[in-house]
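Data deposition worksheet. Section B asks for the primary sequence of the deposited chain exactly as it was used as input, without tags or linkers unless they were present during the calculation. Section C holds the resulting structure in token form. Section D is free text for depositor observations; keep each observation to a single sentence. Incomplete worksheets are returned to the depositor.
Section A, Depositor: J.P.
Section B:
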Amino acid sequence: MELLGIKFAPLFVPMERRLQTLAAAAWFILFVFGGFVGWILVYHVLFTRFYPLAILYLLWMAYDQKVYIHGGRRSEWVRNWSCWHYMREYFPIGLVKLEDLPADKNYLFCGYPHGMLCSGAFGNFVAASPEFKRLFPGLTTYLLTLNVHFNMPIFRELLLCLGSCSSSRESMTYLLGHPEKGKAVVLMVGGASESLYCHPGSYKIILKRRKGFIRVALETGAPLVPVFSFGETDVFDQVSNPPGSWLLWLQSTLKKVLGVAPCIPLGRGIFQYSFGIAPRRTPITTVVGRPIMLPQEPNPSNELVDKYHKIFMEELMELFETHKGKYLEDPKTKLIIE
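Section C:
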């Protein structure tokens, strides 16, 4: 039904779909605003009679700083919450593997595109996806994110329980070089900056200048695995930010200060499809490519880094071109590498 230009959802919708929509909207709101809400709660408690609890928690945060660099503190109970199942089924989010990955190695999953909030990566690698366990038995996933997120009270505990760790060089080296094998370390190489390119049907990624992950992979001898989530950029549009605009300047400036790109998402609502901050119900298929085997070099030269960076770009482009006809509406879509 459409009224005043707003397309409303049907009045009678199966409860399963309602729960999926609620879970997807709650997921987005939680991961966009959760850190700020955590700070507000702690600040509020500091001015109540329960202030000793807030002080003790802040002291605990200071003491616990290294945990997200040294493997984290995951909880399978949290990773198996029902809300993540409903969130995955909302889009839905699928997973495809091109080759077996034996659990006798640690792997660096290099994910693209970042999109607005890494929906495909979260559904497949953060929440306890039964599909991942079936396709990649023996592997344990660690999604890497910025240190700033682990400095946000309460919210950091959720990230740790979900198996997230720091995207710092020290953290990557610790995980990939760990003697206990079977780790799939997931890095969204384009980072938060790439979210500024998120528009439906568009695939523009940041890779040409990103070479640090290649160096870490060479130092630890971890195979590189290109990963691409088709449909990721269709989940949200955003307020237009053309080159040279004041909005893009403001977003880029805040990105440098806060570490996150403050996009203005254009999605849908809970009961209507025309506007809102809930993600759109569009399929996302994450394809895990073939591993690129690297030699272990404690001090890799720039030439060696450039060599495998070029190989990775070629493999990622081939993965995109090979599978875009299966998972994208427009088979002529181009992958733009910046």
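Section D:
Residues 57 and 153 are 8 Å apart (CA to CA).
The mean pLDDT is 91.
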